[in-house]
Amino acid sequence: MGPLEINILGGSYTFLCTASGYPKPTIKWFKGNQPFNPNVTIIIIIVVIIIIIPITDDGNYTCVVSNEFGSIQSWKTLDVIIRYNSPPIILKGPRNTTVQVGSNVTLPCDVLSDGVVHVRWLKHIIVGSDNVSVAGAGAANSGSGSGDKMDVGLHIFNITPNDTAMYTCEAHNPLGTTSSFGFLTVIRMTNFYLFS
């Protein structure tokens, strides 16, 4: 083993720790100085560790192989670099929501992207038997930015029945387009009276 650099958030890497000897050796893993218990597959005398990489998994990984005659160790450094070489990722998009006439609502659209990202909202309405998309729907919070996470929620105030529709958050960067949608249903408040 030896130094390693990983640059894909959410990617995976396989660490191999090969050992042989008599009596058969035991293998232990450490992250830093702490015991580490990964998903381990033992095939005869080869141990394979597969790590799905979140941001917090950077550090030194050590494989210690030992039997009654002694021990040896091998290490690897994992450096996680946050890069999103992909179309935008919508972390939290709009969901099906029901609200009352006159209320306010915010449909979420949390976007993660490297580089410049453009976000817009579409409102899909039914005209006759056709589905029509309207860009910049309502009080859309459309915009653009670069790097990291953006919250580009759609804020709709004093809702009316005309706001009932499917809404789509669409995010675009040079690597592609991602979208997420949800239905907004507007209901009228009905008063019930009990007579005795």
Automatic annotation (TrEMBL):
Domain of life assignment: Eukaryota
Gene3D superfamilies, sorted: Immunoglobulins (2.60.40.10)
InterPro entries, A to Z: Ig-like_dom, Ig-like_dom_sf, Ig-like_fold, Ig_I-set, Ig_sub, Ig_sub2
Locations listed in the record: Membrane
Membrane topology: Single-pass membrane protein
Record-listed E.C. numbers: 2.7.10.1
Swiss-Prot/TrEMBL keywords: ATP-binding, Disulfide bond, Glycoprotein, Immunoglobulin domain, Kinase, Membrane, Nucleotide-binding, Phosphoprotein, Receptor, Repeat, Signal, Transferase, Transmembrane, Transmembrane helix, Tyrosine-protein kinase
Residue stretches making up the Ig-like domain: 10-79, 87-185
Segments crossing the lipid bilayer: 36-55
Cellular component aspect of the GO annotation: membrane
GO function term, MF aspect, one: transmembrane receptor protein tyrosine kinase activity
NAD recorded as keyword: no
Name used for this protein in its record: receptor protein-tyrosine kinase
Species of the source: Helobdella robusta
